[in-house]
Structures are given as structure tokens and as C-alpha cells.
Amino acid sequence: MSKLKEILQVELEPIRKRRKEFEEDIPGLYEILRSGSYNARIIAKNTLEEVECNLSFDSTKVITSLTYNEELDLFAVTYSGDNGIYFYNNNQELQYSVDGSLINANGLNFQTLNSDNNYIYASFSTDRTFAISINVLDWKGNVIGNKYINTNANDYTGVKLGLGEQSVAQTIVDINGKSYILVLQWGVSSEGANDTGAYLYPVKL
Q1: Is pTM, for the whole model, over 0.85?
Q2: Cα separation, 105 vs 118, whole angstroms
Q3: Cα–Cα distance list, 2 to 9, 40, 159 (Å)
Q4: Selected residue with higher pLDDT from 35 and 79
Q5: How does pLDDT run across 16-34, given as a tens digit for each residue?
């Protein structure tokens, strides 16, 4: 086992333990998401900066998102100004990449990567659009498909992504085997409403 993998195992262990606790208390998780979105943004930003310092996959670029497959021992990484996805082993050696032209952003901005042991989900959205574009890839870099959801379209009859215009669809999260779109709302939907925070919307991929 490489030194990097040993460090990752130590660092991930408390996270895995905490995730299991959250899975056993879904109402509590919802409350944390609603009340802690601002703090979560700060923590995520600081964590990304720390990872950038220690995992310099390409020192000439700025990392915007990364995800790790423990079974395959692979990282998937994205960089600022580039919709491409780059795959590295635990020695930080580039194995292969997916050209950004193959990723369907549907005119939206890149948000983040998320993954499980089988697939990678690249999420694109834009503030105040009530839309998200989800690109699904396997860990070999093959583009499986794209799911575009525009809940502001004239022919859409389902639940809108976000309660007000000051919101953005952020990413896909998996809870107990079910997929959800995480939407962050930083402004109230109407005067006097107390509905800022984070919301989960079920989605089938």
C-alpha cells in the first residue's frame, strides 16, 4: 500500500464513521443541511485548498473538484477553465482524461464532481436557473449519458429546484442508495420567509 493510500485511509475513517451516523438519522441530516450550508461552504473551500497543497496533480492548474475511487485507487480531477476530467493514480500520475468537448454542460457552469464505485457525476448549473445538467461517466472515462433537468421550462410540471431565484443546484448526493440533487438557497423566496439553507430533491439517474 502506498504512503498516500495509507494517509487517505486514516483521514477517511472518521468521515466514514460520521456518514454512517448520518444515515441512521436522516431528519437530523436535513436539519444540518438547512442550518449549516454557509459553514459547509467554508469548510469545503478550506479542505480543497489543503488538498491542492498536498496533491499537486498539475501544479500549473487550479483544482476545482476531485473525487476518489478506493476500489480502483484512482482520482478524478477537474481544473479551472476546463470541463475536462483527468484521472490519476495514487502516485499522482495521469492515466487518461476525458476531453471537455464530450461533456454536455447544456450552457451551464461546472459545479462539482461526485462519485460511487461505478460512476462519476459531473454537475453543471447556474445561479437563478432552476436547472442542472448531470453528466454520468464510468471510471474508465467513458461518457454514459447526460440528464438535463430544467424545472423552469414551460412544459415542466414537477417540483421546482429551489424555492426562490437566489438558489443554485449544487451536486448529486447519495443517501441510503437513493440519489438527491442538493440545492443551496442563500436568499429568501419571499419577504418574511425563513427558508434559506440547503434542500434535497430526489432524482432518478
Answers
A1: no
A2: 21
A3: 11, 30, 46
A4: 79
A5: 777 677 667 666 665 655 5
What the block records as the C-alpha cell of 155 is 412544459
CB-CB contact of 81 with 63 (8 Å): no
DSSP string over the chain: --HHHHHHHHHHHHHHHHHHHHHT-HHHHHHHHHH-HHHHHHHHHHHHHHHHHH--S-TTS-EEEEEEETTTTEEEEEETTEEEEEEEETT--EEEEE-GGGS--TTPEEEEEEE-SSEEEEEEE-TT--EEEEEEEETTS-EEEEEEEETTSTT--S--SSSSSSEEEEEEEEETTEEEEEEEE-S-SSTT----EEEEEE---
What pLDDT score was predicted for residue 44? Answer: 55
What is residue 37's predicted lDDT score, i.e. its pLDDT? 47
